[in-house]
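Question (not urgent): is this output format expected?
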Amino acid sequence: MKSEIKGRNLLLTIGCIAILFDLLSTVFSIYTFLEEPSLISYTISQGIFRLLIEIALVIFCYKGHAWAKWILCVILAFSSIILLLQYTSSGNFILLIISIIYLVSGALLLTSPYIKEFMANQNSK
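Got this back:
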């Protein structure tokens, strides 16, 4: 039972990190494109769409759906790769840190026995 609580807490932490960083990146993108009004509406709609998708995936992961875990891991991996590419061109150290956090979060989501136990228990309910 204790490992199940650890799995729940770990899953919620990873989900909150993904949602928080997605929200922050949307705000940062809006701030970046303030000079070009034509891109602001696109950036806002893209950010809201991605945020809603990630929230839904975290909810489905919490309910024990393995497919949601895999999709969330793929999103975290692609986001990490994109951030690494942006880091190489801009040299912004924050992008590297967020990229590493995404990679670690995705790896924990896939390999943690605590998360596996929690999701299996949630799926059996």
